[in-house]
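User: Here's a structure from my thesis project, written as structure tokens. My advisor, Dr. K., wants to see whether a designed sequence matches the one we expressed. Can you design one independently, without my sequence as a hint?
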């Protein structure tokens, strides 16, 4: 009976904490208006969020009192326990506010991030006051203390709403002059996007002569690391790389979005640190993916197409026709020795490897056809297979980082990741072999080749690995949430030979390519051209041109929408 009474008090404090977590949703989505329909849509989420805390704290407290000498007596309403549970909940809420302010730093506007940090401090100060009132017996029993606590509880949500305020998106002033396409002297662009590639794995393989084409590009060009955003979400990183803008500007803010019931709007930034992703469908929200077609910024390919410079991007889901899966099936023998038996617990690895090969094979084959045809001045090839393979096979490429790799599995899968790098290197050779037919190499050709990876892959942290193991996923081993560095390799006309670039940002790629094409760079872009990538002669005759914004220019208002897909 005591537990039931404690449960009632804990639920009151948990309902209050859940209300503050619902307000966190509004802080992370500043364009969502606070109105009756939106509040009604979040009402089920409010109730669901309160249930775990309502049960956890009483259960934990009762567990601590198993060996207590005195029997616990509790009235139906205990102000002491209400203060105690509320103080602990407010501490947790303030931590979640601060955590989300840190993780969503590039996904929300700067002013919204500042307001969220202020809100975290306000909740934290309130938590300190409530905990002090609960611990000091003389203060707790005073009638003025109760009034002050109830008043603070009522004013805190109002104060947070005032801190959150309203957000109006800044619109760039219209830019009317007509832009000109790239000059005839501008080189052709070939951009390879390899998801999950890192110099830590590429450079040793290049030194061993196992990646000959990448080795040639590094020798005749420049290379460096690319820094991404944390937490790293692939679709967000790629959109920022192709637009040169922060996520808060192009509005691809995560891998999924949530449509609220009753027409309450949509949530594009999901809170982290509690069970929002699991509770959202239960509370009536509809989940859908965020994809590049929903972006509010123009990508490099779209800019070039609207300037009448043919460009195309080739990636999974945007192919003209399906390709035969016969070659990927035949390629499996190159990755997995058929004479070595497959361990029974790893049979799904073969299927996942086949799917990665099928997708990359289809995309690369169609891109190669377009590049050889010569009808496109710019071809972008985005291949996701390495990332998917790394998520599963990294433990076999780095067994010392895991320590629990069975010898039979290591014998079967130990070379898969290295062979996938070599497979991608072969595709680079398919595109570039004609340009290396002479001793001049690629430097004297009117072509710029760039290989980019917006993030790398690292071993799953121990705690995360343990949680995956509890969930039945023993094979997951690659991880990129902490945004390990990706890579950039560039070679071609005007590029400095053999020059290390150090570390750049994924936001710098598109401004650099615009600079190479003798095009203006949008002043609303957050990246900068990597001019030190080029030699001094090229820099001296190629000034940096600027315009206020491509989105506000005349090309963005044309009726002919060039999506950039082939």
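Assistant: Designed independently from the structure alone:
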């Amino acid at each position: 009976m005591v537990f039931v009474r404690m449960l009632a008090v804990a639920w009151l404090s948990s309902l209050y904490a859940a209300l503050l977590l619902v307000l966190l949703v509004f802080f992370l989505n500043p364009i969502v208006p606070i109105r009756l329909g939106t509040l009604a849509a979040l009402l089920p989420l409010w109730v669901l969020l309160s249930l775990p805390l309502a049960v956890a704290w009483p259960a934990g407290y009762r567990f601590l009192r198993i060996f207590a000498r005195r029997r616990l007596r509790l009235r139906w309403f205990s102000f002491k326990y209400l203060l105690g549970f509320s103080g602990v909940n407010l501490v947790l809420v303030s931590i979640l506010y601060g955590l989300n302010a840190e993780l969503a730093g590039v996904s929300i506007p700067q002013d919204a991030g500042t307001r969220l940090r202020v809100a975290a401090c306000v909740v934290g100060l309130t938590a300190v006051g409530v905990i002090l009132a609960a611990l000091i017996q003389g203060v707790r029993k005073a009638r003025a203390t109760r009034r002050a606590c109830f008043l603070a509880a009522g004013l805190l949500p109002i104060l947070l709403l005032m801190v959150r305020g309203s957000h109006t998106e800044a619109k760039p002033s219209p830019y009317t002059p007509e832009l000109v396409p790239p000059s005839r002297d501008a080189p052709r662009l070939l951009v390879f996007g390899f998801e999950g590639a890192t110099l830590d794995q590429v450079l040793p393989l290049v030194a061993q002569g196992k990646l000959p084409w990448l080795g040639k590009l590094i020798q005749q060009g420049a290379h460096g690391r690319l820094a991404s955003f944390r937490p790293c979400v692939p679709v967000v990183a790629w959109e920022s790389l192709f637009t040169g803008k922060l996520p808060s500007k192009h509005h691809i803010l995560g891998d999924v979005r949530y449509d609220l019931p009753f027409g309450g709007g949509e949530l594009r930034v999901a809170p982290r640190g509690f069970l929002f992703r699991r509770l959202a469908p239960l509370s009536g929200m509809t989940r859908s993916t965020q994809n590049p077609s929903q972006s509010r910024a123009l990508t490099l390919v779209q800019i070039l197409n609207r300037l009448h410079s043919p460009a195309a991007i080739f990636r999974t889901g945007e192919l003209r026709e399906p390709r035969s899966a016969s070659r990927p099936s035949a390629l499996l023998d190159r990755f997995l020795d058929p004479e070595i038996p497959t361990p029974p617990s790893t049979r799904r690895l073969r299927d996942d490897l086949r799917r990665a090969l099928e997708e990359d094979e289809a995309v690369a084959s169609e891109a190669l056809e377009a590049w050889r045809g010569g009808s496109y001045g710019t071809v972008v090839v985005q291949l996701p297979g390495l990332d998917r393979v790394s998520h599963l096979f990294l433990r076999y490429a780095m067994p010392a980082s895991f320590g629990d790799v069975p010898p039979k599995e290591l014998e079967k899968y130990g070379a898969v990741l290295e062979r996938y790098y070599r497979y991608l290197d072969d595709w680079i050779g398919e595109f570039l072999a004609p340009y290396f037919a002479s001793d001049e190499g690629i430097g004297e050709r009117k072509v710029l080749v760039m290989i980019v990876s917006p993030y790398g892959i690292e071993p799953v942290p121990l705690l995360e690995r343990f949680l995956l193991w509890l969930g039945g996923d023993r094979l997951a081993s690659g991880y990129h949430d902490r945004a390990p560095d990706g890579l950039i390799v560039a070679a071609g006309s005007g590029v400095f030979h053999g020059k290390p670039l150090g570390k750049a940002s994924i936001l710098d790629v598109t401004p650099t390519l615009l600079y190479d094409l003798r095009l203006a760079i949008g002043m609303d872009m957050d990246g900068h051209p990597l001019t030190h990538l080029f030699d001094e002669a090229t820099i001296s005759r190629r000034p940096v041109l600027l315009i206020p914004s491509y989105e506000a220019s005349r090309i963005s208002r044309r009726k002919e929408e060039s999506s950039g897909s082939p």
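When you compare it with your expressed construct, this may help: The first strand starts at residue 188 and ends at 194.
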